[in-house]
Amino acid sequence: MSDFSQSFYWETLPLRGARCRVDGIYGRVLQHFSGPPELAHLLGEVIVGLSLLATTQKHYERLILQAQSQGALRLMVAEMVRGGGMRAYARWETSEGITMDLARLPETLLALTVDPGMDRDQYQGLIRLRSTLTESLQAYFTESVQSPAYFRLLVDVEQGIAGGYFLQRLPGILSDFEWDVATGFLAVGSDQSLLAARPEQFLPEIFPEVGVRLRTPEPLHFQCSCSRDRVERMLVALGMDEVEETLRQEGEVKVTCEYCQAVYRLDASDIALLFAPGEARH
Question: What superfamily does domain 228-274 belong to in CATH?
């Protein structure tokens, strides 16, 4: 299994965690990516972060993790659907440099949206971005979940490696020393050595007196939900006047998916049929 997430927990401690590898998904996202390496690194982190966050959610149809600002980094978003399908993309202003200190960007926001499906209300947690995505995710748990968490996001753009580890301190009796031991254990070593390590061997070493249980890994994969039908519904929502104006200026209506770069083209006959009486989509 190339891409996966795997959760684990300690039997008698209020402590759980997860790990993931998303090399394949990351590589697919970077196929059509032409931005700076700093942004490519952040894209890997947001994919890893969402993969780990998803292990804390039991019931959802779709999860969205996004970071945005009014600076060079306009939007960075990763999405996961039930079943492990993931996609991601970023939008930025090329006239400005991309800073790795996210806290320096103006009007920043980190949002996790949980869509439970079945026409039930979505939930969204919001905080402002910290200096790094790691710090931002940890702050999200402190502020929105009221539960301390530790993230280590491991990304190597040149080698196409993306993975990470996550720990969450649950309600119950866990001393600050024990929390420091657990997080400190995952903080040491190189990124490559941590990703290559076998968790069934090193996790029991954190608390030798306490049993740790690893759940079955859950497969993850790249999946884009774009389709011609979705594009047509979006055009109908824009309205006939705006769509026909684009048709007059361009000779066709061309829509490119920001996630997978699939191109959808509609000519005059397609547009006429789309807005024909009785054909309007909702």
Answer: HSP33 redox switch-like (3.90.1280.10)
